[in-house]
Design goal:
Number of helices: 14
Helix content: over 70%
Structural class: mainly alpha
Largest sheet: none
Number of strands: 0
Distance between the termini: 13 Å
Mean pLDDT: 89
Number of domains: 1
Oligomer: single chain
Strand content: under 5%
Order of helices and strands: HHHHHHHHHHHHHH
Low-confidence stretches: none
């Protein structure tokens, strides 16, 4: 069963990340104040949300793949595990390739190891697979321990930023640059996403609609609203001042609370059928289906209006650009479908490599997959 909320959320998040980048690239220097204010309030939502949602999606993939491993003849737990790690390694290659291009463009070799979102996600994936079998409570405690440890480490290493000693090198490896998505905090968001993914798997596999809606309310929506609200209030009380001076990772509780509350609202809309999601779903679906393609491809827009637009014209340019991107993705989807989805091609390459290592006939496995969907 496909959960439309995840596609809608992923599509909106990708579009939000495009907005953040275009704002940074296209606005004039005179409008830097808008970038400063909006980056403080908005930027730390989209990136962490993308990593969190990746944790949700890959946990769902893991649960569904585990079922297939028991039902299909040519698919087993070994192939599943290798497939997952190949996905992560392929993403790691793409991430470092992206970083190398950035480093060459800005003439700064240190950016080869910079925590852009693809690198953070690749490492989060590599470190997470063993925890998929653990309980939700264990992962919850584990993720918050990581967040606490991260705050301790950054407090120790921050004074050594830019220094050529062991502490300075460790800072670069773990946190360079601080305004992106360093690995430990990204890893914590990814693990938190797997918990939500487990809850979704349990709820959306209930066939009876009335029971599913009841479980959705009691197991996901209400707890998410309560937990999200409590985290938000505590964040304002204890971390509010640090947030406004942009202290490292002071944004974490606000990001967590906003993400789970927003996704819960979308799940309520979908689960209870409050309105037809088909129209909005189709637009966001294309951005979701081609999420990695959009993320990598939109970088060519860097050169279009670099440093030329005021705030008014920027918003006009962004809405026109996003509409044209949506139309282009729709046309691509109708004609070529998965051929232009880097995410889909990564999955195909991963299963191909896993089958080769296990000496499994890829064609036979593909036929089994198709039969199981019928």
């Amino acid at each position: 069963m496909r959960i439309k909320t995840l596609d809608i959320a992923r599509g909106l998040i990708i579009l939000g990340m495009v907005w953040v980048h275009l704002r940074t690239w296209w606005l004039r220097k005179e409008d830097a104040w808008f970038t400063d204010i909006s980056s403080l309030l908005i930027d730390k939502i989209f990136g962490p949300a993308f990593i969190w949602l990746s944790g949700v999606s890959l946990l769902l993939w893991y649960r569904n793949a585990s079922i297939k491993a028991k039902e299909l003849e040519n698919y087993n737990a070994r192939i599943m595990k290798k497939e997952y790690y190949f996905r992560a390694l392929i993403l790691l290659v793409i991430a470092f390739s992206y970083n190398i291009v950035v480093a060459l463009v800005i003439y700064d070799i240190t950016w080869i190891w910079a925590w852009f979102i693809l690198l953070a996600l690749a490492f989060s994936m590599l470190m997470s697979y063993p925890f998929f079998k653990t309980s939700k409570l264990f992962r919850l405690i584990y993720s918050f321990i990581i967040i606490i440890i991260n705050q301790i480490i950054i407090t120790i290493l921050w004074p050594y930023e830019g220094q050529l000693n062991i502490y300075g090198i460790l800072f670069h490896l773990l946190y360079y640059p601080l305004f992106l998505y360093p690995v430990l905090i990204s890893y914590a968001f990814y693990i938190l996403g797997t918990i939500f993914g487990d809850l979704l798997f349990e709820v959306f596999h209930i066939e009876d609609i009335a029971k599913r809606r009841l479980a959705l309310r009691n197991k996901i929506v209400l707890p998410s609203f309560i937990i999200g609200t409590v985290i938000l209030i505590l964040g304002v009380i204890f971390i509010g001042e640090l947030f406004w001076i942009d202290y490292p990772f002071a944004w974490v509780p606000f990001s967590i609370s906003i993400i789970i509350i927003a996704v819960s609202i979308l799940l309520t809309i979908e689960g209870y059928g409050y309105f037809d999601t088909k129209k909005s779903y189709k637009f966001s679906y294309y951005f979701s289906y081609y999420s990695l393609t959009v993320y990598l491809g939109h970088n060519v827009l860097f050169f279009l209006f670099y440093g030329q637009l005021n705030i008014f014209y920027f918003f006009i340019a962004f809405f026109i650009t996003s509409a044209l991107m949506g139309l282009a993705l729709r046309a691509i989807h109708k004609r070529w479908r998965s051929k232009f989805s880097i995410k889909v091609q990564m999955g195909k390459m991963a299963i191909f490599l896993a089958c080769k290592l296990e000496n499994i006939d890829v064609v036979a496995l593909k036929k089994e997959f198709e039969s199981s969907r019928e």
